[in-house]
Specification:
Layout: H1 2-13, H2 19-31, H3 40-58, H4 63-78, H5 80-87, H6 96-112, H7 119-130, H8 136-139, H9 142-161, H10 168-187, H11 191-215, H12 224-246, H13 252-259, H14 262-268, H15 279-288, H16 294-316, H17 322-333, H18 338-342, H19 352-372, H20 377-383, H21 387-401, H22 408-420, H23 429-438, H24 445-464, H25 468-479, H26 494-506, H27 509-527, H28 535-554, H29 564-589, H30 601-627, H31 635-641, H32 661-672, H33 677-694, H34 701-721, H35 739-749, H36 751-754, H37 760-779, H38 792-801, H39 809-825, H40 829-833, H41 838-842, H42 851-854, H43 865-896, E1 900-902, H44 904-919, H45 927-943, E2 944-946, H46 952-970, H47 984-998, H48 1009-1032, H49 1036-1049, H50 1060-1063, H51 1067-1090, H52 1096-1122, H53 1134-1147, H54 1163-1177, H55 1184-1198, H56 1210-1221, H57 1228-1233, H58 1235-1248, H59 1251-1264, H60 1268-1271, H61 1275-1289, H62 1295-1319, H63 1326-1343, H64 1351-1363, H65 1371-1391, H66 1393-1398, H67 1400-1417, H68 1427-1450, H69 1458-1469, H70 1476-1492, H71 1495-1504, H72 1507-1533
Helix pairs in contact: 2-4, 3-4, 4-7, 6-9, 7-10, 9-10, 9-11, 10-12, 11-12, 11-15, 11-16, 12-16, 16-17, 16-19, 19-22, 22-24, 23-25, 24-26, 25-27, 27-28, 27-29, 28-30, 29-30, 30-33, 33-34, 33-35, 34-35, 35-38, 37-38, 37-39, 39-44, 43-45, 43-47, 44-46, 45-46, 45-47, 46-48, 47-49, 47-51, 48-51, ...
Length: 1536
């Protein structure tokens, strides 16, 4: 041993030994047990440390050797040998010099801006910092750790600022260094020393690091752990470090001495020595010095200022320190570049990006001031000579002087200043109104929200102050200033109008009237005299008119309780408006104009203003006349002069006094030439006239028809152009492009008024526009991204979606005609010109399709009645005769096969039209229209074919859609009207003929999903139609026999299986025929099952028919199966057919004839198919269609146990199902999709199996739950067993089988608990194993009510719930686990209350885990972008509310724990700020628990809770008393 020792030690020290050999020797010495050196580990660590220190002092080694020495040191530090020795208590350490070397190496890499060769050094640092015994070299010498932390932060900043991907190594070491320093920081007793360390070495790199972590655009290439976890963790550590380093309680005196003026300071502390520490000045210097690139400096400082101020307030913000807090704000504000603007030192040097960051920082500072309640207006004025007010005032002046309306934060800063004190902004109110509202160019939607929030705050402030007239004086002043008015946006957006409406309802009426007088006066004296020829004045006039319109439409209406002076003043305002504004404008605009003059801007805007004011005046006057009996309208005198309603003249003078008709007609002519506000207001006025006429005792039909025609004609030319833009609903901003939208909105909104008085041609026009706009809406569906705007497409879609359209029967009929015509336009030109084609005949304009609707309303004159009735019968029969002719045409086309070939774009257009047709309420169609729809769809199926270049899948989709709509029609109440023009068998024959013909063009589609969907639609249509035939009971046998004969004729005889016919046989046609036969057989079988015994004759007829159908089906099935080899899977379409065959045979009562059962000819077919299905089950993978069909077959097969071939039993089938569930493609989603089929199979199996077989099945399940399956990584084996357990619980069991299962249930619960424990160690198994186990346990507990009587067995469920993790889960996993845990708890509460009372602590512990989890996930965040994730959290919060409610309602014994539950809740609530929606659910739940608390509990909670938690509880309890309890008692008062 001595030789070994001396040899190695000498060689390591020898200069003659090469460094390669030394490293090999050192490595050997560390790992070898043969080398036994005294204190070997320490010797080797000292050696490598000494060599590295020596190298960095003298630079005597090559870089390669140095790198290998670092690798050696890293291997030693991370070796298990070293860790084991340290755990055993052996003392091994490193020298301080190695820490110095590590710091120097990292500092060198930082200065060279390269991080290529420091991976090993970082790894060494990580190992040292994570090992307490080794980390002492840093913790004992704090300067070394500070140096390391500073260097690591700089390295991290370099990596974040570069374009390289971010790796986790550096950031994990940085996070460890922060954790170590924070630990030491808390232990240090000298606050000045800590402040000096942080300010000198850490403040700048930490602030830069936090900024770069915040603003970095993370990508998928960046390390996921850094992106999601370390990023947030390090930012939190930076904040903690700065909080504890810069703002310790002991330093407050230094801050106060530095911040407060001398006079204030003397009052606070007389005779005290002033501290030499100047913390604020130090921080300012550090922020001002260039610690990063100039391009970044402004943004870093802006973000840092608000952070430092927040930390300062967290430490020192108390009522007595508010002045200190303000002075800290003013000193930190100086660090921002905005301070230079405030002092007038800098002009226009900030870029838009700089403005944005600076304003965001200012907003955050002001938010902190506002939320911390630092500014007390009275205290500032009385005690501190308005020092705060002057500061905020200068801020407001700076912001208004340097308007930045393109930046949302600018609006928010002004809003906060307004909220602090309105007098801060009031001296510049006119400039604020101009720059932030009237002249602000805000177009972007995300900019409008902060702007509206600011204006809303101004509205509310001046409303509360009752100074609304003062505000609108400034508004009027700004409007009348010289400005580029054409660039001004509308004054009142939809959001602002709502806010104004709220304010106007609160204001005294006289203040509103003052504003109206003010605006009318300004119009009369200043604007109107100068408006002629002046575009600027005309635009100002329009702005003033829009204000008058908005105020009059949103103020409180007059009524009989309104004071008389208010009514008189209102009359005066309207009279002044009419005489002083409307009449002069009318006189101005009635003058004749040349054509070239009509294009002048002033004329257009003046016309818009006049018509807007006229409409407003008429509407308001009419409203006041109806709502207030004291109101005297100027029209009253004219109306009183008329002797009777019939004599009333409905000209303009009937609505606006003192107006001549000729003058009005000239104004109308001018207004009609502009597609703008004036034209729209004319339509509104005409509509108002119609309403007034309708309200008369005797209606003037001629006037109504003329008015309705005028409205439609007004917009006809604009609508025909087909060009329109979305409209925001503002009447004052209608342009050439938004006018069609506004016009269409008016027409559709008032259809009930217009329709009775327009001609049929106008109805057809409306229907055509409706179809055209719907087609455009579908084609531009992806482009409509403006949610708040109205478009023609949205209006039309809204009408078609509503239940309103079917009530307008004439329009509904015309719409259908127009839609059918649109289908016809998709056909080639030659086909369109052919009048014999069905679509052309079904939309023919000379056929009275609407007469069936209008017939009851025909005027019946006694002298003309006979001839009219005769004509009516002829006209009605003409419609139906046309339909009969079309029906025969369709049959002929289907039979002879003269299809119309459609190209791909035509097919896509037809699909769009079919989608529009699907929006109709097809069950509300009248008989004639229902038949027309049926014929259209049948015509498309029979007559349309895709071109050779067209996609076959698109054509299949087209056919599927047609069949789907036919099925929707079959559900309508008038579907039997189809049989007026068709025989039932003819329809079936036409459908099958057309599809068999089409099958020649759609080969090679059998493996596509759309083919399966198509077959399902065909089958559903046939099934519904055959059931209709049977239910009608008219020629049932004849129709079914004809259909069957047709199907038989469609295929060659099976005897000629090797003839040419079979060789050319189309598999697509084969599957179609098989589907038809299967459906026919299924319908007949189902009908026979439901047939009463009295109708035996009908049963015999249908049984014979069924047998014939079965025989033909068997031939097709047998031939089809011959074409598939044993290695090929069974075709999916064949499985339902064989299932139907088996059902038909079983329905005939084979089971009643056990002697001849096995001799039945088709038993071998069924047994062979059964064996094939069992073989193929586990190979099916995720082919859901096959699995569902196969399981349905097995359910029918297993219902007759005599069918099992050989010695097979129910156990064989269960084993096959278990094998299926263990397949890799079987996921929880696949299992969920075939849950119904699996349950049905197991119900049949367990219903017919013996007790011994049932015990074998249970043992099979228990084998799958054995823990060795997890150890052998057979997760699917476990999933299959868990799934089978759940399905077994869903099956009804006989008494002996139930007893056997519940005897085994404790073993099942134990196995599930062990499986959960193992699965929870791997997060990838949460969704695949843990969630299904929770679902199964919940079902087991529910079904076990009355069977699971042992407390320990139910307690096993608690052990499962305690293991399940609720943190760091994916959203979908989180919801599954949360729901599963909740359902298990709910099952225990509902079904095992006695057990629960013995395990209350466990229950409350688990439920509290749910509450804490949902609070953590549902806390308020600024980055709530993922609405799907938030929806999940809301659902979980609702589950918690549900559990609270159930505990309070059902569990009276929980009363003693109510105070404990509330204490747990408020303790957690104090730690987080919840999202309002989440908080609402949780609060509603906890209120139910508070209902259980008695007065003693409340006193106990108030006394025993910690200070911060107590405040939270008080707020909760006050809200409970104020809102919930009062509401509850109010409801109880009216409860029987």
């Amino acid at each position: 041993m001595a030789a070994i020792y001396s040899g190695i030690y000498v060689k390591l020290k020898s200069k003659n030994t090469s460094w390669e050999d030394k490293l090999k020797l050192a490595h050997f010495a560390w790992i070898s047990h043969q080398c036994v050196l005294p204190n070997k580990e320490q010797v080797l660590l000292d050696w490598v440390s000494r060599v590295l220190v020596s190298h960095y002092n003298k630079s005597q080694l090559e870089d390669e050797i140095v790198e290998k020495l670092w690798i050696y040191l890293d291997n030693v530090i991370h070796s298990k040998r070293l860790q084991n020795l340290l755990k055993s208590g052996k003392t091994i350490g490193l020298s301080f010099s190695i820490a110095q070397v590590i710091n120097e190496r990292l500092s060198e890499a930082c200065s060279q801006k390269t991080q290529q060769n420091i991976g090993t050094v970082l790894s060494c640092s990580r190992g040292i910092l994570s090992t307490p015994t080794l980390s002492i070299i840093y913790t004992a010498k704090c300067e070394l750790l500070v140096d390391l932390l500073s260097t690591l932060s700089k390295l991290a900043c370099q990596q974040l600022a570069s374009a390289d991907t971010v790796s986790s190594q550096l950031f994990s070491v940085l996070q460890l260094a922060f954790a170590q320093y924070l630990l030491i920081q808390r232990q240090q007793t000298n606050p000045n020393r800590v402040f000096g360390q942080v300010a000198s070495h850490l403040l700048q790199p930490c602030l830069l690091l936090r900024h770069l972590l915040t603003v970095r655009g993370w990508t998928q290439a960046d390390d996921n752990h850094v992106r999601q976890h370390l990023n947030r963790e390090i930012r939190n550590q930076v904040e903690t470090l700065l909080q504890a380093g810069l703002f310790q309680p002991e330093l407050f005196s230094s801050y106060r001495e530095e911040l407060l003026p001398e006079q204030e300071l003397q009052e606070k502390k007389k005779g005290a020595l002033k501290s030499s520490l100047l913390p604020v000045n130090t921080v300012q210097i550090k922020l001002g010095s260039g610690f990063c690139e100039p391009a970044l400096h402004g943004a870093v400082v802006a973000g840092s200022v608000s952070l430092l101020y927040k930390l300062f307030l967290n430490s020192y913000c108390k009522a007595e320190n508010h002045l200190v807090c303000f002075h800290m704000l003013s000193r930190l504000f100086v660090c921002l570049r905005l301070s230079d603007l405030q002092q007038g030192l800098e002009e226009n040097t900030l870029s838009p990006a700089d403005w944005s960051t600076q304003l965001l920082a200012l907003e955050q500072l002001l938010n902190l001031v506002f939320s911390s309640d630092i500014y007390n207006v009275a205290s500032d004025r009385i005690r501190h000579k308005e020092v705060q007010f002057r500061f905020y005032r200068s801020l407001a002046q700076m912001l208004i002087k340097h308007s930045q309306a393109s930046i949302p934060a600018w609006f928010r800063c002004l809003k906060l200043l307004m909220s602090l004190n309105h007098t801060i902004v009031e001296p510049d109110l006119d400039d604020l109104v101009a720059s932030a509202w009237i002249d602000a160019q805000v177009s972007d939607q995300h900019m409008k929200k902060p702007q509206e929030a600011l204006i809303n705050t101004v509205f509310q402030t001046y409303c509360k102050l009752r100074q609304f007239p003062r505000l609108f004086e400034e508004v009027l002043t700004v409007i009348c200033r010289p400005a580029a008015d054409e660039l001004r946006a509308p004054l009142f957006s939809a959001g602002l109008t709502v806010k104004l409406h709220e304010c106007l309802l609160e204001l005294p009426p006289n203040q509103i009237l003052d504003i109206l007088f003010l605006f009318v006066e300004k119009c009369q004296t200043f604007i109107i005299p100068a408006v002629e020829g002046s575009a600027d004045m005309a635009l100002k006039l329009l702005s003033v008119s829009s204000v008058l319109h908005t105020f009059l439409f949103n103020m409180r209406s007059l009524d009989d309780v309104t004071p008389s002076p208010v009514i008189i003043r209102t009359q005066s305002v309207l009279a002044k408006m009419q005489k002083g504004v409307i009449q002069p404008l009318m006189e101005l605009l009635q003058a004749p104009r040349k054509e070239e003059e009509k294009s002048d801007v002033w004329l257009r805007k003046a016309s818009d203003s006049l018509l807007l004011l006229v409409y407003t005046w008429v509407e308001v006057d009419t409203l006041f006349r109806f709502s207030c009996s004291k109101y005297v309208s100027p029209i009253a005198e004219i109306a009183g002069a008329v002797t009777g309603p019939a004599e009333r003249h409905w000209g303009i003078s009937a609505f606006l006094p003192g107006m001549e008709e000729q003058c009005w007609e000239r104004v109308m002519e001018l207004a009609n030439s502009f597609a703008s506000t004036s034209k729209y207001c004319l339509e509104l006025l005409t509509l108002q006239k119609m309403k007034m006429i309708i309200m008369q005792t005797k209606i003037d039909l001629q006037a109504l028809r003329h008015a309705a025609a005028f409205i439609l004609e007004s917009g006809r030319s604009s609508m025909s152009r087909g060009e329109s833009e979305p409209w925001d609903g503002d009447i004052t901003v209608i342009s050439d492009f938004t006018y069609p939208t506004a016009h269409w909105h008016l027409v559709v909104s008032n259809l009930t008024i217009l329709l009775p008085y327009i001609s049929l041609q106008d109805v057809e026009y409306i229907a055509n526009v409706l179809v055209k706009t719907l087609v455009l809406a579908k084609s531009h569906e992806a482009d409509t991204n403006q949610e708040s705007s109205i478009s023609t497409g949205k209006i039309s879609l809204g009408l078609v979606h509503s239940s309103f359209l079917p009530e307008l029967k004439v329009l509904h009929c015309a719409f259908l005609t127009s839609l059918i015509h649109q289908f016809g336009t998709q056909f080639p030109t030659a086909a369109q010109e052919s009048v014999d084609l069905p679509l052309q005949q079904l939309s023919a304009g000379n056929i009275p399709w609407h007469e069936e609707i209008l017939a009851p309303f025909k005027p019946a004159h006694p002298l003309e009645a006979p001839s009219e009735n005769k004509l009516l019968k002829y006209e009605l029969s003409l419609s139906w005769k046309t339909l009969e002719k079309v029906a025969q045409c369709i049959l002929l086309l289907a039979k002879n096969g003269y299809p119309v070939i459609l190209k791909e774009n035509h097919l896509e257009s037809c699909l769009g039209l079919l989608e529009i047709a699907s929006l109709l309420k097809l069950d509300s169609l009248l008989p004639l229209d229902c038949t027309r729809c049926f014929l259209v769809l049948l015509s498309l199926l029979a007559n349309a074919r895709a071109s050779t270049s067209c996609s076959k899948l698109l054509f299949l989709k087209f056919l599927s859609t047609c069949f789907h709509l036919l099925r929707c029609l079959q559900a309508g109440r008038n579907v039997n009207s189809v049989f007026k023009v068709f025989h039932a068998s003819d329809i079936l024959e036409a459908v099958m003929t057309s599809q068999l013909t089409a099958s020649k063009f759609i080969t090679d589609v059998l493996t596509t999903p759309i083919w399966v969907q198509y077959l399902q639609e065909v089958q559903a249509f046939l099934e519904n139609f055959l059931q209709m035939i049977i239910e009608r009971r008219q020629s049932v046998r004849l129709n079914l026999e004809k259909f069957m004969a047709f199907l038989v004729s469609c295929k060659p005889d099976t005897g000629a299986s090797k003839s040419k016919g079979w060789k050319n046989w189309n598999p697509v046609a084969e599957q179609l025929l098989l589907t038809a036969f299967t459906t026919l057989c299924h319908v007949i079988t189902l009908y026979l099952q439901q047939l009463p015994e009295k109708r035996l004759q009908s049963a015999d007829v249908l049984s014979a028919l069924s047998e014939s159908v079965v025989l033909h089906m068997v031939k097709i099935v047998e031939h089809g199966l011959q074409n598939y080899t044993q290695n090929q899977p069974s075709p999916v379409t064949f499985i339902p057919s064989i299932t139907t065959l088996l059902k038909a045979d079983l329905q005939k009562g084979w089971q009643k004839e056990p002697s001849g059962f096995l001799e039945q000819p088709r038993v071998k077919l069924y047994q062979k198919f059964y064996s094939q299905i069992l073989r193929e089950l586990h190979c099916a993978g995720g082919n859901l269609q096959f699995l569902q069909s196969a399981l349905r077959f097995l359910a029918v097969f297993c219902s007759a146990p005599e069918l099992y071939p050989g010695e097979e039993t129910a156990v064989t089938v269960v084993f096959a199902i278990k094998r299926l569930l263990t397949g890799p493609a079987i996921t929880t989603q696949v299992i969920k999709n075939m849950e119904m089929e699996l349950t049905e199979v197991l119900v049949q199996l367990l219903g017919t199996c013996s007790s011994e077989e049932f015990c074998t099945i249970v043992n099979l399940v228990l084998q799958g739950l054995e823990i060795r399956n997890v150890w052998q990584q057979k997760a699917q084996e476990v999933l299959s067993a868990v799934t089978l357990t759940k399905f077994l619980l869903s099956c009804p069991l006989s008494e002996d089988k139930a007893k056997a299962f519940w005897i085994a249930s404790p073993q099942i619960l134990t196995a599930l608990a062990m499986q959960t424990k193992e699965a929870c160690q791997d997060h990838s198994q949460i969704s695949t194993i843990v969630v299904p186990i929770l679902d199964t346990v919940a079902v087991l507990l529910r079904q076990g009510e009355g069977f699971l009587l042992n407390v320990r067995h139910v307690a096993l469920a608690f052990s499962i719930l305690l293991i399940v993790p609720l943190d760091h889960l994916k959203t979908e996993d989180y919801h599954g686990v949360f729901l599963g845990v909740h359902e298990v708890l709910f099952s225990i509460v509902q079904c095992h209350p006695k057990v629960l009372l013995k395990a209350v602590p466990s229950f409350l512990n688990i439920f509290h885990r749910l509450v804490v989890s949902v609070m953590h996930e549902g806390r308020q965040r600024g980055d709530r972008a993922n609405t799907g994730e938030f929806e999940v959290i809301l659902k979980c919060a609702h589950l918690v509310e549900r559990m609270y409610t159930h505990i309070a309602a059902e569990m009276e014994d929980f009363t003693v724990f109510s105070a404990f539950i509330v204490a747990q809740y408020v303790t957690e609530l104090q730690k987080v700020t919840l999202h309002p929606a989440v908080k609402k659910h949780l609060t509603e739940g906890i209120y139910h628990i508070l209902d259980l608390c008695i007065e003693r509990d409340i006193k106990f909670l108030t006394a025993s809770l910690p200070a911060g938690v107590r405040e939270v509880f008080k707020d909760l309890y006050n809200d409970y008393n104020h809102y919930y309890k009062a509401k509850k008692h109010g409801e109880e008062k009216y409860t029987a």
